[in-house]
Amino acid sequence: MFTDMVICNSGQDSPDAYTLLASPNRSASSATTALVFGGLMFLVLLIGIAFASAGAWLVLPFAGLEIAVIAAGVLYAHRHRGDYERLAIRNDALRIERHVGERLEKVEINRHWAQVVLTCGQGGHHCRLALRSHGREYEFGRYLDDTQRVAVARDLMQHTGFDQQRTIPRGRGWGFSYDESEPY
Amino acid sequence: MSTAETHAHEGHHHDQPTGLARWLFTTNHKEIGTMYLIFAFAMLFIGGGMILLVRAELFQPGLQIMQPEFYNQLITLHGLIMVFGVAMPAATGLANWMLPMMLGAPDMALPRLNNWGFWILPPAATLLVTPFFLGLAGIGTGAVDAGWTMYAPLSVQTGWGMDFAIFAVHMLGMSSILAAINVIVTIVNMRAPGMTMMKMPLFAWGFLMTAILLILIMPVLAGGVTMILTDRHFGTHFFDAAGGGDPVLWQHIFWFMGHPEVYVLLLPIAGAIPHVLQAFSRKPTYGYKAQVYGMWAITVLSVVVWAHHMFTSGMPTTAQLYFMYSTMLISLPLAVLFFCWIATVWKGSLSFETPMLFALGFIILFGWGGLTGLVLADAAADPQYHNAYFLVAHFHYALYPTTILGVMAAVYYWLPKWTGHMYDEKLGKLHFWLAIIGFNMTFIPQFFVGLAGMPRRIPDYALQFAEWNMLSSIGAFILGASHLVFLYVVIKCVRGGAKAEAKSWEGADGLEWTVPSPAPLHTFDTQPVVK
Amino acid sequence: MGILVRRVGAVLTAVLALAFWHSAAWADFSWNFPEPVTPIAEETLKVHNLFMLIITVVFVTVFAIMLYSFYTHRKSVGHKAADFTQPNSRKQWFWVIVPFAVLLFIDYIVFGIPAYHAIHMYEDSKTDAEMVVKVTGSQWKWQYEYPDEGIKFVSVLTTPREQVMNQAPKEENYLLEVDNPLVLPIHKKVRFITTSTDVIHSWWVPAFGVKRDAVPGFLREFWATIEKPGIYRGQCAELCGKDHAFMPVVVHAVSQSDYDAWVATKQAEQVAAAASAQETWSRDRLMALGQEVYGRACAVCHQPEGQGLPPVFPALAGSAMATAPFVDGNGNLIKDGHLDRVMNGKAGTAMQAFKATLNDAEIAAVVTYERNAFGNAANDEVQPSLVSRLREAGQ
After folding, report:
1. ipTM score of the complex?
2. CATH class of C131-274
């Protein structure tokens, strides 16, 4: 997904070394959403009531059903309005926060033990970014696109317990493959 | 390093199932778009094949190859299939493919819903035509045969093909509503940063209007067909005067859905055509704002004019006057669109590749459809045209240019983006000219035979109509053949051809031309920003 | 076959004529409404011709402008694209507004004002109406009733099946010929009232310029004043099931004196029929009339040999109903018995109430026939007097 991405990279040694906030692009405000939904509901009900008063009352249940489906769609979009992923490195702690719908997941790992895992499919597409610590993987960057994931991976490697001797590919960041079995 | 295999079974969201499962469960807007288009095209051949049988029967007077019962099934299925099985899925397919690309969004807003929306269609279509084939095999009374308008009480009286049609209509309606909700949420919520509503591509505007209309009209149709069902089997009397009902109530229900339906079919095309015109005129779209307001006006007016389909049903004089004058008003926003289309072409640097030919063919033929519509709006003259072949010719001049010529323009225009290959230009042009000749040869005679007094929906006719009908039948077969050419062009283009560039047309403009051809499964590498 | 060859010839010549524009080749083709014979039809033709002229001019003008642009603004001749996207000067705005003003003028003045008067004329069926005809549509026939004259009859297609199935040459009025045409006097304003017994039909005679739906359970009306004697033909214009194509309308417009004579004959016929209904009929006489009525009213659905088209149109041959008793001990109709079904029909199906369209003798005869034909052996008969009595009793 696309992202409003805010990165703050203050250098490797400062206490607030790195923060990243990523949230999917949403072009509608709550007010717009409410207006669109309210407007549609009003018109659908108006038409339903008009037909019911002309004797075709069976239109009404279908109008109601439709409003329910629209409401579900709008609610789904609305619940995910606040979705974001946040990654913050402060001192030795690397915190990952993920807010999906009503849920907030938080995890904190030691930055020196964290390992960046970037895996990509053929042609460098479908990249997946995760941090590995103590045998567990924490995926990150769901709202980033492939280029951004590669860039973020590059950033993170500088801040984590990664063997910095290995060079990181330059260029657009894809067009070649990363292999999970061969961590950087 | 065989990385692709390594990651194929990694699970998570990068997983790409293969084979049937891939198409069954895909939530990717491009794959769903492709399925919609293939479905629409398959249905075009079924619905078209049926009407060719009809034209073969009408080649000369007398009953040659079928009985009236069978004839009525063919014309009914032709109407339902062309409207619900071809025109709407084709437009939805275009929307699925192009909307996210044109809006700069990664996918539709509700991808799972999108998948359901498509997969309701094939069972619905199967349900609709099953009684037809059962009937051919000698089981039951055949498919629905009350005309696609399904006027009560004929639809209450007829065989169980009608029940199948009712459930099919429910499913088709549900599919349309899911697609409509998805489009609205996508357009409202997923536009690229900086793309305000008034910077949105016209195609998105057209489809937004269509989606709104669908949401307004579909519950009415669903309620209406359910009332027919309960009248048939559960002893209600919605449409039975003996029980206090009114058969004409069905006509109001049907046309409250049916008239906006015409614009449901038109608006996505009215939105797509400016993109084609500006590309081949190498000149920006004329009157963007006027076109947006025009579409709004059409949308609003389309839901308040329905009863002009019912001038012979014996409405009060004041109602006839109202529906006549309000119908005439629609000519104004339509004229705005025509004006803008022609002004876009005017003083451009024109070239006439296949998409441009189809777009111009659409404008000219749809123009004639619209003008003849003005005549039909006159409530006093209308009875002379109504349910005669003049009407049949009129609405085919309105619907064929939009739903077929318009869709063809869009398909040829974006085909390089979809397949990564240029199609065969010569064959594309052959397709166009065959379609234009076939179409006019089919429907010009129908204007005249209608004026002479031939009613529609009859399998056999008086001798004075014979010559025109023969001409019309010959035209219909040419028209049918033109679509075979199209089938060949598309297959050829998918399989190979000159490599298409990211910007496949010199004058093309829009976000979709910034990504490679063929467009990768996931469109954008970076979030596009509209300035 | 000869006709087919001739017709293919005509069509081919017409196609060639398109290329060389030779008007004689179009002789077999009709181009416009039939000659109007009522005020409404005249008005409609006038409006239609004006409409067609205007929209053709609009179409040709716009098409010409487009063709000019296609030719002049070609890239292949190096035309450079302009980049205007809206009117920029007062003069341009003026030329943008003009087409819309013209369109509004055409819509609401040129078309709108005559249409307003035409609609009022079309709907005014009551003022100065001189006679009333009730038109009842049924699957697939028209029934005409003259309430003031006490005349009532059914009008059905007479074109033989062999012509439809191409086993006999088609005659001039193929599919447009009936047994009992509607007879009307000229120069009299006739008020028509339409209704239907089953589904919606639509009564249409192109030369009259009127078409009105016949809606079951409701009355609709329209009018016509025929100004020229002649035979006028039309068809049902609303899909009404299987034989929608086979329920034509034929109107004989005659002078007042011819009309009066026709009324007198019809009335005498009806008196005779009523009288004979009170006689006791022999089985043979009932069977003879019954066979004739069956062929006219029942055979389309139940088929000539009574085998029906199940499940929509049940078979009569071997039908239990057709041999079971039809009146109870008190001489009342047995509900859903044979006679009840024929007289009162069955709601929700194509089986209509034939007491509305057949007279007493015809009902008695056809029921008798059905009970004793196709291998059915009820070996009884229905007397017209019974039907007459049941009818009086409102059954």
Report:
1. 0.90
2. mainly beta
Q: What does the pLDDT average to over A50-56?
A: 93
Domain(s) of CATH 1.10.760.10: residues in chain C: 278-392
- The residue of chain A with its CA nearest to that of B221 is A59
Q: Which of A89-93, B308-312, C292-296, C341-345 has the lowest mean pLDDT?
A: A89-93
C-alpha C27: how far from its chain's center?
27
- Is the CB of residue B319 less than 8 Å away from at least one CB of chain C? no
Residues 6+ apart with CB under 8 A from B362: B269, B273, B401, B402, B405, B406, B409
Check CB contact of B313 with chain C, cutoff 8 Å: yes
Alpha carbons B365 and B343: distance in angstroms, whole number = 17
Give contacts of B177 with chain A, Cβ < 8 Å. 66, 69
- Tell which residue, C235, C11, C7, C205, has the closest CA to residue B462: C235
Question: Quick check: A66 and B177 CB within 8 A?
Answer: yes
* CATH number at C278-392: 1.10.760.10
| Per-residue exposure over A140-170, b if at least 16 CB sit within 10 Å of its own CB, e if not | bbbbbbbbbbbbbbbbbbebbebeeeeeeee
How does DSSP classify residue C110? Answer: I
Q: C52 near B329, Cβ under 8 Å?
A: no
Provide the pLDDT for residue A19. Answer: 80
Every domain range in chain C assigned CATH 2.60.40.420: 131-274
Q: CA A93 to CA B297: how far, in whole Å?
A: 59
The dihedral built from the CA positions of residue B49, B54, B59 and B64, taken in this order, carries a sign that is positive
pLDDT at residue B466 is higher than 80: yes
The pLDDT value given to residue B399: 95
Assess contact for C389 and C343: CB atoms under 8 A: no
Which domains can be identified in chain B, with CATH numbers? 31-514 (1.20.210.10)
Mean pLDDT value across residues C118-134: 92
B-chain residues near A137 (CB < 8 A): none
- Residue reference for tokens 């895996």: A119
> Could you tell me if B18 lies within 8 Å of chain A, comparing CB atoms?
no
Encoding tokens for residue C358?
A: 């057949």
DSSP label at residue B313: G
Beta strands, E only, C157-316: 182-185, 189-196, 201-205, 210-214, 220-225, 230-235, 248-254
The mean pLDDT value of chain C amounts to 89
- Here the tokens at position C38 are 């009522």
Instruction: Please tell me the least confidently modeled range out of A120-129, B183-192, B252-261, C59-68.
Output: A120-129
Residue A166 lies in a domain: no
Domain that holds residue A75: 37-79
Q: Is B192 on the interface with A (CB under 8 A)?
A: yes
| Residues B28 and B107: beta-carbon distance below 8 Å | yes
Segment B335-352 mean pLDDT: 94
Q: What angle do CA A6, A8, A12 make, to 5 degrees?
A: 150
Residue A166 — very low, low, confident or very high, per pLDDT cuts 50/70/90?
very low
Cα first-last separation, chain C:
53
Which residues in chain B are contacts of A139 at CB distance < 8 A?
12
In the structure encoding, which two tokens stand for residue B487, read together? 């089938």
Q: What is the mean pLDDT of residues C56-62?
A: 95
Q: Tell me which residues of chain B, numbers 235 to 274, contact chain A at a CB-CB cutoff of 8 Å.
A: 238, 245-246, 249, 252-253, 256
Query: In this predicted structure, what is the pLDDT of residue A101?
Result: 78
Written as one letter, the residue type at C13 is T
What's the pLDDT tens digit per position in C208-253? 999 999 999 999 999 999 999 999 999 999 999 999 999 999 999 9
Cβ partners under 8 Å of residue B183, min gap 6: B95, B99, B108, B207, B208, B210, B211
The total domain count for chain A is: 1
pLDDT surpassing 50 at residue A176: no
